[in-house]
Amino acid sequence: MSKSLIIAEKPSVAQDIVRALTPAAGKFDKHADHFENERYVVTSAVGHLVEIKAPEAYDVKRGKWSFAHLPVVPPHFDLAPIDKSKSRLNAVVKLVRRKDVGELINACDAGREGELIFRLIVQFAEGGKALHKPVRRLWLQSMTPQAIRDGFDALRSDAQMHGLADAARSRSEADWLVGINGTRAMTAFNSRDGGFFLTTVGRVQTPTLSIVVEREEKIRKHVPRDYWEVKASFLAKAGTYEGKWFDPKFKKNEDDPELRADRLWSARDAQAIADAVRGGSGTVREESKPSTQSSPLLYDLTTLQREANGRFGFSAKTTLSLAQALYEKHKALTYPRTDSRALPEDYLGVAKKTMAVLAEGDLPGPSRELARHAKQALKADYVKPSKRVFDNAKVSDHFAIIPTLQTPTHLSEAEAKLYDLVVKRFIAVFFPPAEYLLTTRVTTVGAHAFQTNGRVLVNPGWLAVYGKEAQDEDANLAPVQPGESVRNVEVAVLALKTRPPPRYTEATLLSAMEGAGKLIEDDELRAAMHDKGLGTPATRAAIIEGLILEKYMLREGRELVPTAKAFQLMTLLRGLDVEDLTKPELTGDWEYRLLEMEHGRLARSAFMRDVAAMAERIVRKAKEYDRDTIPGDYATLATPCPNCGGVVKENYRRFACEACEFSITKIPGGRSFEIAEAEAFLRDKRIGPLEGFRSKAGWPFSAELRLVHDDEIGNWKLEFDFGEDERRAQQDGEPVDFSGQASLGACPKCKGHIYEHGTSYVCEHAVGPKQTCDFKSGKIILQQPVAHEQMHKLLTVGRTDLLENFVSNRTRRKFKAYLRYDPREGKVVFEFEPRRERGGKPPAKGADATPPGSAPAAAAKAAARVAQSGESAAQGAAKKVTSKRAAATKAPAKEAAAKKAPAKKTARRRGA
Question: Where are the alpha helices (DSSP H) in 159-266?
Fold first, then answer.
């Protein structure tokens, strides 16, 4: 008997389908990768199992990226398995090819991406030969058993899905064409003077970066303006209250948003108002009206990431990872990668069951106190149909993130915090609105008006779930009787300055990405991006992390700061007249046309022709640019020219003196100078060691830079300094004289003496002509100086004090660690403070001592890239040795693997 193969997108959905079909189709037997009965075979992907790639003839390796190989517009795309999912792909493909499988049912998520996942799997399984197996589509917005059964009763035909399939494939291929050609063209342009300056661009990442750069440009260009406010205290019979002067006739000026009703732009005017009202009597006019505030909607992923960043400082990536663990490992949350904030209309019963579980369950950590609110919601029958919560029209591929019927145990502290956010929101959304009494009071003294606002919380409603039972602090507004006269008892003039707009945090950048469609002027394109924005909830965290990884942005605390490389890219794209890559209009245009394709009003071939033409135009603009430099808004350095004392100015490629021939490149070794770094370099003639340089083959390395005088050219020039003097001493140079130094301690390897030498602490037997030891540790590790006394402590006591200023190369976040010598590895390594479990218990043997999502874990991972001081790796890259030698900056496989130890964790290492 022929069977139908059902392919879901996730294992949890496959299980839901099996449970829903069992009553009608019979019991399923569970196998390793699928379920099966007489009628159906049910399996699943785990997201994308296959990705598109160019045919081998078009796959140019990065070391050979040049205009000679561009543009890359392959006639077709091949498919490649995603490495981490190969075993799953093989299992699904085997089922697709089974001879007793006569029909395929696409049960992947109801949307463009779900359609693409299924189509690529089937295409890969066909291997160039059509299987001739009919396809039908299961389209679900709700995962209740009845909704699944109803979906199977109304399966869609393959012909109905062709438009969506074409749009899904076109979007994927278009992103590839623009990303590959744009990245290779900009990299080739920036590498014209030698080296390899990787310059990535993309349809989503570049407009996202542009948002951050434009905000930073406003911050830098902002000129503070002085303004004044006048505040006064008034005495009534019932007590005193405060008011702020304002202009009742004020109207907003779109051309000058810094103008406000309560701002005065003259100290004289402010003082005159203060003098006029001081000690005077005034009349009071006030208006009180009731107001309500409903609970915020349920969480989608972006909203959850925003709030977790704002409340706990979690990065978007960390929040996604925690939510994914709560979904996959603990089964405590529904699918997190969603852009919906509503539930399906048939989920009322599920919501009531969930509320009952929360009311009776033993919730973890901070959520334990919420059980009483869940009980109240059930008792008062708060869980009832409401379009704010249950609305099919607002459910896309997935519904909002809510707790499941399974209460979790053994959560980490970070997981418990995130779970608590979701549980609170789920309970609160069913509670009544909070009720306030809002009072606006205007006190008039002579010709001058002062405003006072008061807000009294009458009924907390949903705010009770968040612990807000009492009235606000600003609610204690002394009452004034009708007709009562009040007297001024104090008046103050405050001198203030306007501030620039704040830098983006991950929370505010996620909001900007989500709402990027609002920046588009064209009505049709803006409508096409409605509720879409830049990226998807599932990809936005990766976009932000990618921009940080490529050194376009840095994290400074919670702020995201664009680097010199980011400004250089924006200058380049504007100068080459390919600025459309920086704007969300590109996404809006694509979304509009892909929607047309979904509805059969646009041919896939026409869309792809236009995208290929765009890719070719980007390459042509970069290839044919014939001027010396790109126009832009460049800096003038404060540090004078080291050669003649003249003024040094920035251009696209160099810092050059206006009065003589002195100049240095802005991007030595493929790494952009920050302005502050350039200033320090010209002043001190030396800087570093710095991270992020790349060899011509593209390998990363670290090095110091020196500014040296070249007598032959009669000017100064930039050189990489890999510690050649130290290297020669360590190999076969002159014996090193340490007689002027006191030993810092005994070598842990050979018991010789340890001394300071160059940029390292070394064993006396590890330098000079006769080397019998190789102990060496850097004096600066991940930007943390290691003082003499700390090295002495490491050698004598066994480890340093807890050092607090290590900076992760990847995340740019500071972290704390000890340094100690590991005799098994023969190196100095990081050791982190042990993490304590809830209840104060130390971690179990073998437990990871690093807090989840914390900087040390990421820093340790980055630290594994370079052994000891990292100099040999840098020398290897700079000397153009073989790729194997240049790759020494990468961690050996043994080091790259996470190592777990009892309580005290030996971290993955860097030149400690």
Answer: 162-190, 205-221
